[in-house]
Amino acid sequence: MSVLDVAGQRAETLVEALPYIRRFAGKTIVVKYGGNALAGTSSHDALALFAEDIVMMRLVGMRPVVVHGGGPQISELMAKLGKETEFVDGLRVTDAETVDIARMVLKGQVNPQIVASINVHGNYAVGVSGVDGGLIRAKAHDPRLGFVGEVTAINADVIEGLLDNEFIPVVATIGSDETGQAFNINADTVAGAIAEALHAEKLIYLTDIEGLRSDLQDAASLIRQATVGHLDQLIADGIIAGGMIPKVASCQQAVRSGVARAHILDGRIAHVLLLELFTDDGIGTMVVPDPVSDSGVTQ
Amino acid sequence: MSVLDVAGQRAETLVEALPYIRRFAGKTIVVKYGGNALAGTSSHDALALFAEDIVMMRLVGMRPVVVHGGGPQISELMAKLGKETEFVDGLRVTDAETVDIARMVLKGQVNPQIVASINVHGNYAVGVSGVDGGLIRAKAHDPRLGFVGEVTAINADVIEGLLDNEFIPVVATIGSDETGQAFNINADTVAGAIAEALHAEKLIYLTDIEGLRSDLQDAASLIRQATVGHLDQLIADGIIAGGMIPKVASCQQAVRSGVARAHILDGRIAHVLLLELFTDDGIGTMVVPDPVSDSGVTQ
Amino acid sequence: MSVLDVAGQRAETLVEALPYIRRFAGKTIVVKYGGNALAGTSSHDALALFAEDIVMMRLVGMRPVVVHGGGPQISELMAKLGKETEFVDGLRVTDAETVDIARMVLKGQVNPQIVASINVHGNYAVGVSGVDGGLIRAKAHDPRLGFVGEVTAINADVIEGLLDNEFIPVVATIGSDETGQAFNINADTVAGAIAEALHAEKLIYLTDIEGLRSDLQDAASLIRQATVGHLDQLIADGIIAGGMIPKVASCQQAVRSGVARAHILDGRIAHVLLLELFTDDGIGTMVVPDPVSDSGVTQ
Amino acid sequence: MSVLDVAGQRAETLVEALPYIRRFAGKTIVVKYGGNALAGTSSHDALALFAEDIVMMRLVGMRPVVVHGGGPQISELMAKLGKETEFVDGLRVTDAETVDIARMVLKGQVNPQIVASINVHGNYAVGVSGVDGGLIRAKAHDPRLGFVGEVTAINADVIEGLLDNEFIPVVATIGSDETGQAFNINADTVAGAIAEALHAEKLIYLTDIEGLRSDLQDAASLIRQATVGHLDQLIADGIIAGGMIPKVASCQQAVRSGVARAHILDGRIAHVLLLELFTDDGIGTMVVPDPVSDSGVTQ
Amino acid sequence: MSVLDVAGQRAETLVEALPYIRRFAGKTIVVKYGGNALAGTSSHDALALFAEDIVMMRLVGMRPVVVHGGGPQISELMAKLGKETEFVDGLRVTDAETVDIARMVLKGQVNPQIVASINVHGNYAVGVSGVDGGLIRAKAHDPRLGFVGEVTAINADVIEGLLDNEFIPVVATIGSDETGQAFNINADTVAGAIAEALHAEKLIYLTDIEGLRSDLQDAASLIRQATVGHLDQLIADGIIAGGMIPKVASCQQAVRSGVARAHILDGRIAHVLLLELFTDDGIGTMVVPDPVSDSGVTQ
Amino acid sequence: MSVLDVAGQRAETLVEALPYIRRFAGKTIVVKYGGNALAGTSSHDALALFAEDIVMMRLVGMRPVVVHGGGPQISELMAKLGKETEFVDGLRVTDAETVDIARMVLKGQVNPQIVASINVHGNYAVGVSGVDGGLIRAKAHDPRLGFVGEVTAINADVIEGLLDNEFIPVVATIGSDETGQAFNINADTVAGAIAEALHAEKLIYLTDIEGLRSDLQDAASLIRQATVGHLDQLIADGIIAGGMIPKVASCQQAVRSGVARAHILDGRIAHVLLLELFTDDGIGTMVVPDPVSDSGVTQ
Predict the structure, then answer these.
(1) I need a labelling partner for B148 at 20 to 30 A (CA). Which of B160, C201, D56, F217 fits?
(2) Which residues of B are catalytic?
(3) F38 in A contact zone (CB under 8 Å)
(4) Read out DSSP for chain E?
(5) Is E57 at the interface with chain D, CB within 8 A?
(6) Is B274 close to A61, i.e. CB distance below 8 A?
(7) Beta carbons of C11 and D283 less than 8 Å apart
(8) How many domains does chain B divide into?
């Protein structure tokens, strides 16, 4: 294919993306990027692809916000330091040393890695954590578990300031209480709370599954679209369970609070963000509000 | 190819365009669109493609300005009205009736056609002519030729206001003097003068030739890049002549006044604007400044 | 009279205008200027006087918007082109060629004439039509009549942008649908719709009658002031009829939607706009809202 | 004359003022209003006329600043209080009590009188004196004369803030030193210094003479226009003397520092400000810069 | 104590003030400064201390507004001028001459004194009276008493403009009616009305008493805090009487209209403003809103 | 001492600080906070005192920027991880793992500790490192030493954005190159480069020495003030040596580039920042520009 043909095809493709670009111009889109995605062997390449998607979103006029965790990386450093996890009544305890390690890893290792990958393309990204500008105020979830926190308030001033200055905020999900004590908080929950506080257009979870299924054993049972009410049912029926609960509950909470759409996407697909944003059908599972005058369930 | 594959290819292509999008974000780009392009049988399709390119430029953050003429359309209406052209010493005279017809066609027919094509995609384009906000101040070029004008001043306030309000200005090249008398002015010249007044990054002429040639008979002699000095030589040698003179002289004048690059492109190629903007090599002929400390000619 | 006396009288006159100037400072005033006014033998002088009034309004701090039609000019060009009007069931049809001619005349002839007359005084006026910035969205009024449109939406962003940049918008009343297809729309109706969209203080129709009469045969029956309810009665009684209906209905609609006052003035009187604006009694017919707690009719 | 005729004449007159209104839109004009003008029997009427002129200037877009003294009023209060003036070497001394009386009269009597007259027309005027916002910094002119001050610096922030908020500043010419000690300062000098600090377009002195004369005894010798160089000559020749010196020197200083025009007008003529601003010939004496490449004297 | 120790202590003290500084940053605080405070032998020193407090408030980010009267100073000038007070039915009459004297003293003597004291520290203060920008619109309280006014409207634009430009407004409490006629108005009432118009955080009266007492004869009965309802009771019981009524009524009115706290402080204590603002307990009497769901009286 | 007396003393002290507060209002002050200060046994208290000073600076209107290193904390984590330092030619090498550890400690441990201490007082501080918004662009200092970086460019946009939004930036001194590779950079050097880029008023180093000495053995030889030229001499003479070199060179470089004053203070003194800012004599060593027309040395 000649250089001209290649360029011609590129032009056609760009033009096809026009209506999608137009639809999301100026909209805030919160993307939860999982720690798993950064931990694998091909993590560097995956991160580079992810960074391209985020920069493209910003260049075509969206306001992306990245929220990330980093469980595997925390475990890795704890192992290196010979730190063992305590348990109380069978539950994992986050002691003071552990939350310091978590903060060190999330803010000092995972966060700058993501920022650096984005900034290969320009001075776009700025990393923050929950203590910066009082972004995530937290308290202990259960005193017996130590410094595992739950969100009590989001103060989004620092993020909005960065967005208005055309930066891309990258958020490490460490919160703090009024004394400055750090808490480790579930990143899925934080992503939802931030989307809500920013009145985001979309909340997107990049995961390592294809989407939600109505039958866990059946790949063909992928749920393309679900109302928040439908998800209540699926949780009640035990079809959504385990680690998916915080994601799904955050999707529900965000959509109930005014976020237009929440998505659970397969982060292992290259450029999955652009795929979702630039395809009519979309991919993965999309969560939508319940119909206004209707108790029914859409599927 | 599956839907996912198509979308994947689209994502890849978008990502490949990233560095080009970044480079021109916030830059003003003046595009001269020829009346010929609107006159042919396939003109409607060509105009639709052109409109897509302009909207895409705007959506990825550029500030495009469209300048157009409409010679064939003027001739057509004159023919319908049975109006014959006068000559003085063999030169075509623009009498009062003719300039009124020209204004009617350019502002009332060609301009809204272009505006409407762009606005299929949204409320982007706003048409103006030289009398609006005093944009193009003109005087008679040669009194014997009547109301053929030359530019005496550009007052770009109205265009800058529209750009700042995120509109796409579409300019019909009718100027006026201080009494409001209309003048018909060469659209190529106006495009250059506006690019200069706006301190544009690029001035692009869409023509019906492939580009400049160093040997008119030899398609292989296409000049890919020329300094303004080189063009002086080609004009002196008679290689650039006739209708190309105003375009080339406007390119030279614009580049000498600070416009970074001027381009002569083949408007018959689909999406030629995006091709030029999103390809390293570019296409057609690019005019660049003379090297600073050097009398040489680049090719 | 000495130079000093003349100047002294001028000073006195200016000072008498003080309270009127103060009252309308910063207010938006939409003026419908009729195509008839431009068609007569003394049209050039009338236009010059009108332009002076508009510029004066702008200089003393009002925000004037001019809306115009151009029926006689359209008919004239159709005649020159040998284009005959078709009729369906006795109604005049606007076919594709006719609406193109209308657009050409309104946007390409009448509009720049008005703009040029105003701009003799400075770079004030900018002409727009309904397609510019999606200003007037229209649809077919009655499919059998072709491209006669009715307003479906006004998007006043382009006008507000021009007013905020201290320009005087001059609007040609050609609308378009979402495909860019042009429609010819009654200019009286458009003027009212724009006044409503801009939350204008006043809507003024310049006509070739003295004002509304309660007895068509009796010049002494001129109605100086009428509530919108009173006008309903006059229409029901057949006293307001024919071409006056769109004007009167637009006055009623505008006043019902929050425009404080609507006026039907005699455009043949020199400086009639300044007369209306700078006299306590006013002239012509003024339309005011119905009294709030009252079903009565004011006269 | 009918109501319509009167209104028509008013409209004509307004339109004649158009070019003058346009010329001074947005321009800062400093007007020195003399204490004498406020002291006479018909002072109330004169002040009302003056207030109308100032409000009109503001309504047509100028930025007027009023500067005033109040010598006669100070003398009057001193007389009532039985306070006698001391002399040193034949020169009048301003002791502490006298400067307090001056401040009380200027800021507490004359200034609010002018402000109130203007504000009959709306909430336009705000009175300030030299101590407000550090507007006029002063020091003793000659220690033997006590608290007679000369200007050491103008800090125009408070005036510019008021002008930007669309108020009309009215300035009482009491200055103060860094300890807050008040000084009485020649109001003519202050007016010039403020015009200079504001980069005013015009500095206008309202006096009780017709203008400067080249022969004091000959009313026909009124000087209509003089360069600053010409005035040096007239001072050297003793033709300009006494109380006119501070006015003329301030005119010269202001014009030399970039104020375009300075004027000495006869404040006894009704609406003399509008006369000057809305007449080509102007009245009184106008001071203009020296010709650039010329040592000559213009008349 | 060494220089370092002194500085160390200073640092400690500043740090102790931190929470108070933070609490009031950006808040508007209206301070009524009594004419009495300016009349005594040590008035100069007291004024200097007061000025320091006001400047400190401004420098740590508050928006202070000073309102003052000047009864003793008015009486003093009236005495000097041999002007005697008339009585009607035993009530003091303010005739035209008296209100002129009041204006002269308040605006021309007391106001610039306060402004000058503040401006020893920088160009902070700007004096205004009720006529400036139409700040205080007034009418006669009782026609028999002449020009004693009551507030009909506050137009705070001029004060808000000054605050936004980071000036400290100092208000002389002379109002005016729509003809510009001056009225002398109780300064306590004006202070309350201005606090209300500005939605101030605090209204503070500096008086020459320690605070309100529940038993006038018993210094130990100082009321530290009272609800507005409690004050109604104290007035009904005759415990609050005489000159305290306007202050207390203004406190009540202001707190009822949304001012968070009103204070009656002893202006004879050095730096009493900073004491109140930087102490948890506060001093003097603080007026707070009635409890929302409770008819009770707090003490 | 009574509560009132304590408060009174506090008021006096605040008032004494007035001129210093005024002098630095709106000024940017860069403070280098050493990692040593955070490492000691009383580090928590010292950090709390430091945070109070920084918040006080912000509340009285300065724009503080904190820059910090964290050498001891890095060594501590390396020891825990059993990581040994390599040497090349006797110089310490920073390999890839080491720079990752440094980043983790600086950005993930020291930085949030400082941010949290400041934010006990409100949502003031926001932590950033060199990769955020491309703040610190770096390259290898000496390839043999690995990822020890030197500053190639400072892009202060992110810091200026935070300051304009009224946040306090806290900077971890990890830089990165255009590929996103992290480099560990001397924090003293970074502090100077940032002060220069921000056109700061002051650059302050908090150290664990009293200041510079002219005789290292003699505590009495403390240098209170030195010109940059004098410091050249002291370096040449070997009096300034070792770890002080980067601090002193950065002071010199910053002052030569327009920073008005640089200071070397003893961070072990409580509230040393407020002491320096609120004392005429200051403490520690102050570096000032060379006298303009003079080769001399000031001491």
Answers:
(1) B160
(2) 32, 35, 71, 188, 247
(3) no
(4) --HHHHHHHHHHHHHHTHHHHHHHTT-EEEEEE-HHHHHSTTHHHHHHHHHHHHHHHHHTT-EEEEEE--HHHHHHHHHHTTPPPEEETTEEEB-HHHHHHHHHHIIIIIHHHHHHHHHTTSS-EEEEETTGGG-EEEEES-GGGBSBEEEEEE-THHHHHHHHTT-EEEEE-EEE-TT--EEE--HHHHHHHHHHHTT-SEEEEEESSSS-BSSTT-GGGB-SEEEHHHHHHHHHTTSS-TTHHHHHHHHHHHHHTT-SEEEEEETTSTTHHHHHHT-SS-SSEEEEPPPTT------
(5) no
(6) no
(7) no
(8) 1
Please determine, for residue B268, whether its predicted confidence score (pLDDT) is greater than 90.
no
Q: Does D290 contact C at CB distance below 8 Å?
A: no
My answer on whether F157 and F216 are in the same domain is no
Q: For E103-117, how does the pLDDT look when each residue is reduced to its tens digit (9 = 90+)? A: 999 999 999 999 999
- Contact between chain F and chain C (3 or more Cβ pairs less than 8 Å apart): no
Residue C166 inside a domain? The answer is: yes
CA distance C5 to B191: 52
> Which chain D residues are Cβ-neighbours of C269 within 8 angstroms?
4, 8
Whether B22 is covered by a domain: the verdict is: no
Domain membership of residue A222 as a residue range: 26-288
Catalytic residues of E: 32, 35, 71, 188, 247
Q: Which residues of D touch E121 (CB under 8 A)?
A: none
Which runs of E-coded beta strand occur in F73-165? 86-88, 91-93, 125-129, 136-140, 149-154
Q: What is the CATH number of the domain that holds C141?
A: 3.40.1160.10
Domain final residue pick, F200, F221, F241:
F200
Secondary structure of chain A in HEC code, one letter for each residue: CCHHHHHHHHHHHHHHCHHHHHHHCCCEEEEEECHHHHHCCCHHHHHHHHHHHHHHHHHCCCEEEEEECCHHHHHHHHHHCCCCCEEECCEEEECHHHHHHHHHHHHHHHHHHHHHHHHCCCCCEEEEECCHHHCEEEEECCHHHECEEEEEEECCHHHHHHHHCCCEEEEECEEECCCCCEEECCHHHHHHHHHHHCCCCEEEEEECCCCCECCCCCHHHECCEEEHHHHHHHHHCCCCCCCHHHHHHHHHHHHHCCCCEEEEEECCCCCHHHHHHCCCCCCCEEEECCCCCCCCCCC
> What's the pTM?
0.86
With a CB-CB cutoff of 8 Å, which residues 102-121 of chain E face chain F?
121
- Short-list A187, A198, A277, A174, CA closest to A30: A198
Q: Is the pLDDT of residue B196 over 50?
A: yes
Higher pLDDT, D40 or F44: F44
F51 and F110 within one domain: yes
Is the four-CA dihedral E114, E116, E121, E122 of positive or negative sign?
positive
How far apart (Å, rounded) are the C-alpha atoms in residues A253 and A235? Answer: 14
Asked if B137 and B151 touch (Cβ cutoff 8 Å), the reply is: yes
Q: Is residue A20 part of a domain?
A: no
Asked if residues C152 and C137 have their Cβ atoms less than 8 Å apart, the reply is yes
Percent of chain F with pLDDT over 90: 61
Q: Are residues F217 and F179 in the same domain?
A: no
- Is-catalytic flag, F188? yes
DSSP D156: T
Query: Region A209-219: what's the mean pLDDT?
Result: 85
Region F44-71 average pLDDT: 92
- Reading phi first (left if > 0) and then psi (alpha if -120 to 50, else beta), residue A287 is in beta
* Closest by Cβ to A132, choosing from F127, F157, F176: F127
Q: Which of F69, F192, F247, F290 is catalytic?
A: F247
Query: Is the per-residue pLDDT at B298 higher than 50?
Result: no
CB spacing of A167 vs F178 below 8 angstroms: no
In a domain, C85, yes or no: yes
